[in-house]
Amino acid sequence: MKKSTLSCAFLTTLGVSSVVCAQPFDGFYVNLGVGGTAAEYQMEQFSEFGVAIDDIAFESLSGGSKADVYGNSWVGIIGAGYRYCIADGWILGLEVTADVESAKGSDEFFANQFVGVDLDFFDERFELDAAADQLVAGKTTTKLENNFSVLFKPMYLVGPRTALYALVGPKWGQFKTTTSAESFAGIEIDEEVFAAEGLELSDKASGYTVGITAGLGIEHYVADQFSIALEWDYTDYGKIKHPDNELFVVGEHDHHHDDHDHHLESGLANDTKKVKAQTNTIFFKVAYTFS
Description:
The chain is mainly beta. Helix content is 4%, strand content 78%.
């Protein structure tokens, strides 16, 4: 307090306007908070499934989805920072935060079709009439697990113990994304029905993606060194890390019918084209200032 008073007196002596030193909004502080986040994920995925009997291919079946999905979660946050009075009523601050949450969103699709063909082999052995009932399903799930941020916080006093503030800066979010697809074909050969081998594939990716955060808040000191704050922020992460594209798996199946062996092949490809993320979060915080 004595140092701040002397600084103000020195500025006045130099002919500079007296600075309101914004006590108690001055010095190092730590805070804890709880809140809730609403995450929006923009997902685009595609899968394709095909069946061939004795090297004669059926029409392939494809499906996909392009959707916005949502996930909500409680958030716990811890932070530390420093702020300094620069002019009458104006304070600049820098804050580092970390939080834990579990905002998850999922998108899935399902597609099927029935395909009938006359293959008509005339190889001195048999004619073959065949049909296939095919399906393909896919799913993408993304979860935001935690964040780290470095935020610039300009503040303005609206009362002796109350300030409005804005915040802006980078935020690193850890996302875990899982993609999966499965397929199945019911095959009919000369009126005899059997099942082709079902295929499944899945992959996952996790890692940090940097986003840009902006927000607003209000803080009020309820005691000399203790304050409470209500804060909202919005973060746009853009395109986040997701599994590699174009996963592919092949299944084979041999079937004996009318003293003849038939060879079936089925293939499943999955392509997660993109996943984008953005969040809106509201916090209630309690802070302690070491001034």
